[in-house]
Amino acid sequence: MPRSAIVGTGFYVPERIVTNEELTHLMDTSDEWIVERTGIRERRWVSPGTSGAELARRASVAALDAAGLEPSEVDAIVLATLSPDHFFPGTGVFLQRELGLAGVPAIDLRAQCSGFIYGLSVSDAFIRSGQYRTVLVIGVEIHSTGLDISTRGRDLAVLFGDGAGAVVLRATEEDGRGVLSTHIHADGRHAEILWAEFSSSAHHPRISAELLAEGRHYPRMEGREVFKHAVKRMPEVVEEALAANGLTAADIDLLIPHQANRRITEMVRRRLDLPETKVVDNIDRYGNTTAATIPIALAEAVGDGRLERGDLLCMVAFGSGFTWGSALVRW
Ligand code: ACO
After folding, report:
1. Which of 54, 117, 213, 319 matches a 20 to 30 Å C-alpha distance to 163?
2. pTM assigned to the model
3. Nearest Cα residue to 326 out of 261, 252, 262
4. pLDDT digits (tens, 9 = 90+) for 35-44
């Protein structure tokens, strides 16, 4: 049975940097509050008219270049996002069109902050089953156009940023290398703890002037509940992955946790008893880009030379749904 290996990584973030200081002019908040509670100093926001498909295209081209592959060598696209460009069709087909890959399947996947791990999981299964040899896996998000950028929405508006990350996953026969296992979970009992209620196909009309005036189209979150579940589920699913492979946390060379906020990352790191040097943390520069955080952080880590052949990489996510998951990769 072939195994899948990450043979290329890439990311793209919009040029526009939005600092905490800039946000203080738009809402009642402070750099001190944001840094202390989240670790975020700045995030990227797209300029009007930029689509998620465009961010995804740039990240994908970078990943394909790094892999030394042409787009025509891609057998399938798996794109994770909670902020699709349109209700339908999915962002994946727009990306597919941009890459000139007519005929190649494009799967949009919705698992919020865990979207990339979910995407890696299904792509790994495609490759192991022999159905495809090369899959482009992308996490892309545009949050800035969907946030309540005012004091009313400050709890969420300061957290999120825009960006995209991509990997090329490819069948390998190389001994020992590749995705060892993925572990994905969900618990819909908590769906409304972090969600965007409208627009909704369960309502007619899906959105109205009244709902817009009430701000019901903006995401809402019970932050403390999310925090509580995240710091439990993330270490748990890392332990699950380690146990499945007869490994321990001490074997991990690099941990890439979903970048939700620095306090969550810090608690996960402590629970796994890992030194800071083994944990990737770039939330200060990008904020939470949900499905895109892990592939962006991975591409940066690769660029910084933080992974060497043979290293054990662990990626772990938790997010709205709730959804969570982990992946272990022998680099
Ligand atoms: N600036 C200034 N004050 C703020 C802001 C802001 N941006 N946002 C909220 N406040 C105020 C609140 O109004 C509240 O004021 P009050 O005490 O007068 O009512 C006070 O700060 C404390 O608010 P809390 O929500 O209780 O703050 P908390 O300490 O819980 O921190 C935070 C909020 C950072 C969101 C925290 O709950 C958290 O980290 N939660 C995890 C959720 C998360 O990271 N979600 C990301 C998406 S999900 C994911 O990726 C896993």
Report:
1. 213
2. 0.97
3. 252
4. 999 999 999 9
